[in-house]
Structures are given as C-alpha cells and as structure tokens.
Design brief:
By secondary structure, this protein is mainly α. It is globular.
Amino acid sequence: MKTNRQSRPSLLMLGLILVIVGLSGCATTTKHDPRDPWEGWNRGVQKFNDTLDDYVMKPISQGYQWITPSFVDRGITNFFSNVDDIGVIANDLLQFKLLQTGQDTGRFLVNTILGLGGFIDVASKLDLPKHNEDTDQTLGAWGIPSGPYLVLPFIGPSTPRGLIGLAGDTAANPINWISPAAIPYGVGTLKTVDMRADLLSATKIVDEASVDRYEFIRNAYFQQRNYLIHDGNPPLDDTLEEEMDLELEGLSSANGIAENTEQQANPQP
C-alpha cells in the first residue's frame, strides 16, 4: 500500500504540470500577435500566393528541376549568388563592417574571375564564406523599426521596412540596369524559378510540420530577419522571455503544490 500512496502525489504533480503547460500553450496560440495588425489582409494575400504557387510556380519549378542537370542548377544558383554579392558589399560598407567588406569583395572577384562569372563557387574553397547582407538588414542595424507584418502579392512575407529594402536591393542589382527591359525580366524570372526549385523540399517540411501554416511562416520570417540583423546572435525577445518566466513560475507553483500534497499524504514520523 505504501507504493500506491506514493504514486498518487506523483501523478498529481504530473497532471498539474501538463495542465499549466497546456494552458500556456493555448494562450500563446490564441493570443493576437501585436506585430500583425493586418492579419485579415495578410491571410487573404497568403492564400492567393499559395494558390498561385500550387498551380503555377510549384509545377514550373518541379519541371525545371527535372530537366536541369544538377551541376547546371548549382551553377545558376552560384551565378545569382555572385551577382547578389555586389549588394552585399554595399551593405557591408553601410554597416561599417570593413573586414567583411574586404572578404566579400575578395569573394566576388575570385568567383567572377576564376569561377567563370560566378558559376563555380571557388571562393568557398578558399575560406571566403558567403555572407548575407541586404538593405533591410542595414536599415535594421541603423535602428529603424520593421513596422507591422505585411504579406505582399507575388512577393510574400515582408514589412514596410522590408519593402523599402527590396526596392534598394532591386536598384543595386546591375542586371536591372541592362536594356532592353526584357533582359532583366527574363533573368529575374529564371532566378525566381531557380530559387523556388531549391525550396521544394523546405516547403514540404513546412506543410507537414505546421498546424497553422500562416502563423508558422510569420514567426519564421521575424526570427530569420532578427537572426540576420544581429549576425546570428539575436537578443532574447521580451515577449518570449516573459512567457518563459510565466511557465517557469507555473512549474514552480505546481511543484510546490505537489510537494505539499505529498507531505500531507506521507507525514513524517
């Protein structure tokens, strides 16, 4: 009988912990995100973009991936990455990252000259890693707030600051300076298809792993941007920190109640 008397408080403690964690989880999922005041609009636009992707972009990208040899696909991705390094270098300077400016300039020159215009990533083999800097990150590093979450037709997740950053990145891309305009449009279409093909497996993971796909993408967008702006060392979000403190307080309270219950059930002689 002693074993049964000891198991009841343990089950009670487990039950209390599960209830507290469950309630905190429910509160998190139903709570309106203050970063997303335009959620109604955003959900509608995401539904439009998802439909367009299902019926247009995904089939085209799958066909592109099927007919394109892997080394050609890799070369096209490398080429566009090399072109993007021009904007990376400019944003390095705007953020006063002088050492990184030198590294990215060297990377661009090596891949352009030795890598046949960037189709071969020679620089990575020479310990010149790829960095990711854009205008949105520069504005964030300057202290300009992102503004509310905004889903744009054909573009996807963004913010007002991200929209300005996109305009800056587009202007910094030398391919967009070429005339006639059909050339930039054609090259841009190829880049979009190539990027979408590279994300086919990631899309499948998102679809299978997320309960609310919209919420998953929104949170992932903010986390990724925050990660990039702080160079992989983002500060702990205040809201997340408060939720963690509440959960820890709840678990401590549950342990205290369980210990009191166990003491009453098993009084010391």
